[in-house]
Amino acid sequence: MKIILAFFTLAFASPAPLKAESAYNPLEVPGLEIVSKTFDVKDTNRDRTLPLRVYLPKAPEPAPVILFSHGLGGSRDNNPYLGNHWAKRGYIVVFIQHPGSDEAVWKEKQPGQRMGAMKQAASLENFVSRTKDIPVVIDALTAWNADKSNPLHDRFDLKHIGMSGHSFGAVTTQAVAGQSAAGGKVSFTETRLSAAVMMSPSPPKLGDPAMAFSSIKIPCLLMTGTLDDSPIGNSKATDRLKVFPNLTGAPAWQVLFDKATHMSFGERDLRGNSEIGNRYHKPILALTTAFWDAQLRGDKAAKAWLNGSDARSVLVPEDKWDLNTKAKDSL
User: Fold this and answer.
1) Which residues pair with 93 in a beta bridge?
2) For position 84, which CATH number holds?
3) CA–CA separation, 176 vs 130, rounded Å?
4) Residue 5 domain flag
């Protein structure tokens, strides 16, 4: 699970351009100035306040929205390399902080107490709270969009919303993207979402993965690693591979990074050492950006890049890249 001990406000440096067959380059960053701002969304029905960090282009026209849900023990300040790059590509990126499973769980604890506190926070109660946070945030963005006195008035293209997250955030993303529970009797689906990215996804602890994931109908990109184990919940890297083959109702793509750990998707490891610039960030940025461009903008060049040989150009030979039949047919 991700524990981010510091946050960064500077833009992530763009890697060198790809040597690809097509002119489309998801790592190319236009000269677009962006800003990062913080907000609080108050859910009066649940007496709950959701801190947000929003990365957005300074350009005034409405932009597609990407939501991001942090892992257990994280915050709205996690993964700025994603927020900066996606915003520079013209998206408004909203990082949601989930009280009860955020950094407050461990920050005030003694080192020997932190793991126990984290395990306790990985609860059904917090999972349900997270799934309810997503529509609350979308409702808030909708209200801001309509309010002429709000500084974010008419900034959001709310017909094109992407959902993403890592670890507990991936579980949250799976749920609101359409994963069912209790044999199909329970659903947390948020119908306003257009596409989803799950970093370190997880199969359901109970029930049939085929039934749980077949109800997802929106395009999905899954990202994991051969060493993507988690000390909380005893999740193994092999477990994470049980999601992709059961996404039978939606176009789906999956990358399995060779030797990537659970922390490779963030900017700090478990000991707080910097992971900025690790070898996985470049392909993460490239694949997610192409996916968003294809799904939220309908960019045909991005679709061709994602489904052709160019996507493999950001990977090493040991990485595995796959797409299902619906993804192949979506071009």
Assistant:
1) 55, 66
2) 3.40.50.1820
3) 10
4) no
Residue 85 maps to a domain: yes
In percent, how much of the chain has pLDDT > 70?
Answer: 90
Q: How many CA atoms lie within 13 A of 78 on its CB side?
A: 33
Exposed/middle/buried for 272, CB within 10 Å: 0-12, 13-18, 19+? exposed
- Does residue 298 belong to any structural domain of this protein? yes
Degrees, nearest 5: CA angle 257-258-260: 70
Sheet with strand 220-227: strands edge to edge: 34-43, 48-57, 92-96, 63-69, 156-166, 195-199, 220-227, 252-261, 320-323
Q: Which of 68, 20, 46 is nearest to 126 (CA)?
A: 46
**pLDDT digits over 76-92, tens only?**
999 999 999 999 999 99
Closest CA to 14 of 29, 26, 25: 29
* Res 9: pLDDT: 31
CB 92 within 8 A of CB 65: yes
Give the pLDDT score at 141.
98
Q: How many domains does the chain fold into?
A: 1
Range of the domain at 216: 34-329
Span 250-296, pLDDT tens digits = 999 999 999 999 999 987 544 444 554 588 999 999 999 999 999 99
Which range (115-124, 242-251, 300-309) has the least confidence? 115-124
Does residue 26 fall inside a structural domain?
no
Residue 176: how many CB atoms within 10 A of its CB? 27
